[in-house]
Amino acid sequence: MADSGQQADGCAIEVERLVKSYGDFNALRGVDLKVKWGEGLAIFGPNGAGKTTLIKILSTIAKASSGRVSVGGFDLQGDSVKARRQIGVVTHQTLLYDELSTYENLRFYGKMYDVPHLADRIRELVAQVDLEARRDDPVRTLSRGMQQRAAIARALLHDPPILLLDEPGTGLDQRANEMLINIVSSTGNGRRTVIMTTHSLEQGLAFCNRVLILARGNIVYEESGKLDISTLREVYHRHTGVGY
Amino acid sequence: MKESAGKVLAITRKDILSEMRTKEIVTSIVAFALLVIVVVSLALDPSERTSAVAAGVLWIAFTFAGVLGLGRSFVMEKDKGCLQGLMLCPVDRAVIYFGKMLSTVIFMLVVEAIILPVFVILLDQPRFPPHLVLITVLATVGFAAVGTLFSALSVNTKAREVMLPLLFLPVASPVIIAAIEASGLALAGGPWSEILPWLGVMVAFDVIFLAVSPLVFEFVLEE
User: Fold this and answer.
1) pLDDT of B30-88, one tens digit each?
2) Cβ(B198)–Cβ(B183) under 8 Å?
3) What are the C-alpha distances in Å from B191 to residues A185, B183, B204?
4) Which of A2, A116, A128, A211 is deepest in the core (most CB within 10 A)?
5) Do B80 and A96 touch (CB under 8 A)?
6) Which of A62, A97, A114 has its CB closest to that of B222?
7) Prediction pTM value
8) 8 Å CB contact of B84 and A91
9) SS3 label, residue A15
10) Contact: A111, B7; criterion CB under 8 Å
11) Tens-digit pLDDT string for chain A (244 aa)
């Protein structure tokens, strides 16, 4: 995995008093969050709760209006380039170029990330996501599930210690979903740290050992350890007013 | 530095590869520029096709066709969130800027290489002065330096097709005016001493915007 900033001190992600405003609208209102190395955190919340905004800030796509954010031991104010090397991101969009093949996309991103032994790494990942037979076909000709599998390969290309998954299950076929489960389930042994936003309480519970509920830009509930689905449904309804 | 240059080239190579598959940008700019030159050549009486008028026609064609191409440059990145993919890469935002700018320069130079001979024939220009190549290259670099910045800026706006020319053309006007004046002189067979000051304007414009645009680009990209 890519070398991280301060693996020894125990926190992969630290967020302090994070505020993000779009004009008069406050998408995040003073969020505090710490995620340890190897932890799997599922973030739930209704539409507009601030889940995607949080992921965008952690992935350096958006800038915080105020507050401090550190990813992989690197403060995003001054070390965002180093922080980016620590993260892999899977969203409902593939972030792949339609006209290029899976191989060409991975080669491009591999060069941008300085991936050593790139050809071998691509071969290994393409096999892992089971796209060997279609690796030279333009991405636009692949099914939605295949495209998302290629997107998973893109996110893992530089072997990031932190994975940010923003609604990764959208449009996934059975096989891609299983692959995602395999990737995420390798988090427990001090391997990857995973932060996942999802609308599916079942998926979040299956993947992660800690849950958090965001509503109106605030963390309204947090729990470590295993919860059963009925308790989570009840808690979710109580804090968001939205039923499941 | 060497690493950054490699990544700039990787972005440019990726853009060229995409363009070779879709032919979306170059084809539309060539078609638009050709159309402008053909229509104007039909509209103008042969006696009116002076070097000064011809230079104006040439740069109107290049400018508006270029705006068309610039508009597509970042729209293609927005599809499927590829712009986010680029922004996630562990590189300085300036690397993305220079990669995209270089692609624009290459696409425009390809188009200009096709259009220039057609222009000389259709607008009855007696000569093809070699200075015109230098003028075209300098103006194209300045055009792309500013255009890449405003293309990124307008891609997140709702009325981006309108916003891009509105924002871009006033800022790019010094380099366009210098290109028209220098081209007019070159087509008329004017001496170097008269062309040189306009080349100086273009060089200064290029240097200023190549220095400033990458610094501003970071704020343009991030939400």
Assistant:
1) 999 999 999 998 998 888 888 889 999 999 999 999 998 888 888 888 876 899 999 99
2) no
3) 73, 12, 21
4) A211
5) yes
6) A62
7) 0.91
8) yes
9) strand
10) yes
11) 555 554 555 799 999 999 999 988 999 999 999 999 988 899 999 988 999 999 999 999 999 999 999 999 999 988 999 999 999 999 988 999 999 999 999 999 999 999 999 999 999 999 988 899 999 999 999 988 889 889 999 999 999 999 999 988 776 777 777 777 776 666 444 578 999 998 888 878 877 889 999 999 999 999 887 778 888 888 888 888 776 6
A93 shares contact with chain B (CB less than 8 Å): yes
Residue type, B105: V
């954010």: which residue's tokens?
A: A69
Quote the DSSP letter at residue A101. Answer: B
Q: Does A106 touch chain B (CB under 8 A)?
A: no
Q: What are the DSSP calls for A37-99, one per residue?
A: TT-EEEEE--TTSSHHHHHHHHTTSS--SEEEEEETTEETTT-HHHHHHTEEEE-SS----TT
Q: How many residues does chain B have?
A: 223
CA distance A71 to chain B (A): 13
Which residues in chain A have their CB less than 8 angstroms from residue B90's CB?
81-82, 84-85, 112-114
Identify the residue whose tokens are 């705006």. B67
Distance CA A225, CA A232 (A): 12
Q: Shortest CB distance from A112 goes to which of B7, B22, B79?
A: B7
Using only C-alpha atoms, what is the Rg of chain B?
Answer: 18
Token pair of A189 as six digits: 């042994």
Q: Encode A174-189: b = buried (16+ Cβ within 10 Å), e = exposed.
A: eebbebbeebbeebee
Partners of residue A154 in chain B, C-beta under 8 Å: 85
Measured in whole angstroms, the distance separating CA A235 from the mean position of its chain's CA atoms is 24
- Per-residue tokens: A90: 């899977």
Residues of A in contact with B82 (CB under 8 A): 95-97
Residue of B nearest to A83 (CA): B90
Bridge partner residues of A90 (DSSP): A165
Euclidean distance between CA atoms B163 and B174, whole angstroms: 19
> Residue B144 and residue B150: Cα distance in Å, rounded?
10
B214 Cα to chain A: minimum distance (Å): 16
